[in-house]
Amino acid sequence: MHIVTGGGTGIGRAIALALHARGEQVLAIGRRRAPLDDLAAASGGGIAVLSCDHSAPADVRKLVEAVDGPVTGLVHCAGGNPAIGRPDPTSLDEEKALLDETIAGNLTSAALTVTALRPLMPTGASIVLYGSIAAEHGVGYYGPAKAAVASYAVGLAAALGPQDIRVNCISPGYIADTEFFGPGLDADRAEQLRRQTAIGRNGTPDDAVALTLFLLSPESRHLTGQNLHLNGGAFTTR
């Protein structure tokens, strides 16, 4: 079984559909029921769906109960930037609430999900966590939260390596045709982001699908503990 969190929309949805098209058993998870129902319908009922808040231990326990069979692949796309579209905090209490929500939705959700599902993962399984280019640019609390996810992947890879379970992180730049920015990204900003890439185009969910499927496959069997930047050259490392 492959589990895809954040599976109702955007990158997660595209990954779930691609895995299903390959004949894999897929459980897609998200917080909102309507997008999950749409996904199930789009797959002809072939993709199982479950509503879950990955930062809530009780919900994650229900997830484990819903799993049927060993988990050979886990893709954690759940997360986001709750500051988008909201007014800036005006008090310490509001500031802390935003910080807590951002950490919970990104790092806590990844840690609880992996911890809960780890006993169900056999030798040779693969975990793919999703970070962000924001970790390199220091975007509010979202950037540090995603930097923590990438760091978590490194430590997790070392811990699970002896069981031949691989862990990698994908950190995308701007991916078009997703709900990440909601109504907050206009055409001018999308064009600005396009110009920041080396190849002159913004990413698409299909770009993320291709890399994710590779990391889940045996072809990447010697690749673990890495943070792979998927951004068309908008941010580069060496």
TrEMBL record:
Q: Does the keyword Oxidoreductase apply?
A: yes
Which GO BP terms sit in this record? fatty acid elongation
> What Enzyme Commission number(s) does the record list for this chain?
1.1.1.100
EC top class, as a word = oxidoreductase
Question: What keywords would UniProt list here?
Answer: Oxidoreductase
- Sequence ranges assigned to domain Ketoreductase in this UniProt record: 2-178
Which terms in the Gene Ontology molecular function aspect does this entry carry? Answer: 3-oxoacyl-[acyl-carrier-protein] reductase (NADPH) activity
Keyword Transmembrane helix among UniProt keywords: no
Instruction: Kindly give the Gene3D superfamilies that the UniProt entry links to this protein.
Output: NAD(P)-binding Rossmann-like Domain
Checking InterPro entries in the record gives: KR_dom (IPR057326), NAD(P)-bd_dom_sf (IPR036291), SDR_fam (IPR002347)
Q: Which PANTHER family match?
A: 3-OXOACYL-[ACYL-CARRIER-PROTEIN] REDUCTASE, CHLOROPLASTIC (PTHR42760:SF40), SHORT-CHAIN DEHYDROGENASES/REDUCTASES FAMILY MEMBER (PTHR42760)
Q: What protein family is recorded?
A: Belongs to the short-chain dehydrogenases/reductases (SDR) family.
* Name of the protein: 3-oxoacyl-[acyl-carrier protein] reductase
